[in-house]
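PROTEIN DATA CARD
Card holder: Glyoxalase-like domain-containing protein
Chain length: 287
Origin: Psilocybe cyanescens
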Amino acid sequence: MTINTSTLDHLVHLTPPGTVEKASKQFEGLGFQVLPGGTHVGGLTANALVVLADGVYLELISFTHPASHYPPGTPERKQRDGHSWSKKSPGWIDFAFLGNGSLTNSISKAINERGRTEGSGALYSSEEEGGRVRPDGQSLKWLISAPQTLTRGTLPFFCGDVTPRGLRVPSEPPSNTEHPSTATGIAFVRILVEQASLEVVSHQLTSVVGKKPISSTAKVVTWELDTVNHARAHPQLLLGIPSGEDEVAFVENSESGAGIYEVGFRVKGSKTGSESTPYGKISWVPT
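Structure generated from the sequence above:
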């Protein structure tokens, strides 16, 4: 059975502990409609959502408390310190592709086999259960598979719904996907890496996406991704090396020397240029 591993599901934007409501207002100021999310299983994190018409969404997330809230040595503190995003600086910290919610047709096994066959070294952990409770009390469940080979945020993780995706991604009514900025979907996700890492990460991403780049130069490698709603204009995944002081500083200050630097949004009309989220960069791409 062919398993699709190239559908962009969501992007994760982190803000400091306890700031989901504040971040929601900041994204509203950028021209996005923000919907309530909920608290994740275990109570460590909470989120709000920005749902786009192409089916991709933004997860505005924060830890509910700083690490110091939990007494040292307690199970809660160990769980907080061991969280995948516990050491991430605020901003665009991660991105997810859509999984299939199946343990039988395992995405991690499919990618790991590609990694071995192609010699890229791409390696994913076995699927683990995850979930959250919405403000209305609805319980959501999914399966997560994350990369082992690089720090999260350079290779995507996979989120596959066990409960219906419509419960996790509230795209109904259609007005939920309408935004003052006229954003309709993702134009690109731009990841920066050190020059020495470009070739290795490019090979691993090819194994993950499951198809070859649509273009490749010494500075930028580009893949075309799919969306849940099969948007005519496909999002692009851009992997490149930094240019300019801001981009060099971003890579140098990154936990792993790599990460999502910029996200582009497709908008109706002539809106162009770039702006800053509370801790990241966005660009507007007219359709």
